[in-house]
Amino acid sequence: MKLGTERDVLLLDGDCGLCHRLAIFIDKRKRPDADIAFRPIESEDGQNLISTFSKKQQQADTVYIVRNGKTYIRSGAGIRVLLYMKWYWRIWYPFVWLIPLPFRDIVYMIIAKNRQRVFARPNVCTFRID
Question: Burial letters for 9-19: b for 16+ Cβ neighbours within 10 Å, e otherwise?
Fold first, then answer.
């Protein structure tokens, strides 16, 4: 299966403690029928996929999700992850989506800026890659 076109993929920073924990959190709570792959941005698969994005998206330095062939970044990616999760997480999607994009992205950027200070880096990227 080809990532990004035939299978949805979540690209996260493999050296980030927060991203690492989020990948494990999501994986444990996703729906049984959710077909999403996890990849570190730094991986060969991740870099190959990112090279197909627009220049603006390639330079975003963010989390990415490719869903049904369309790329989402920052808070848009974070919110869409809810769609892969069990119903009691998925019900939050429409409510969170009502928050205007500029506000969501500001919160995302504040968290992204401080994530390395708050969350220790993992020694190795251990989130499941399938």
Answer: bbbbbbebebb
Q: Is residue 60 part of a domain?
A: yes
Question: For position 71, which CATH number holds?
Answer: 3.40.30
Q: Considering only CA atoms, give the Rg of the chain.
A: 14
Candidate from 52-56, 59-63, 64-68, 87-91 with smallest mean pLDDT:
59-63
pLDDT at 1: 54
The domain in which residue 12 lies consists of 8-118
Q: Two tokens at 18?
A: 């927060």
CB neighbour list of residue 53: distance below 8 Å, 6 or more residues apart = 64, 71
**pTM (two decimals):** 0.87
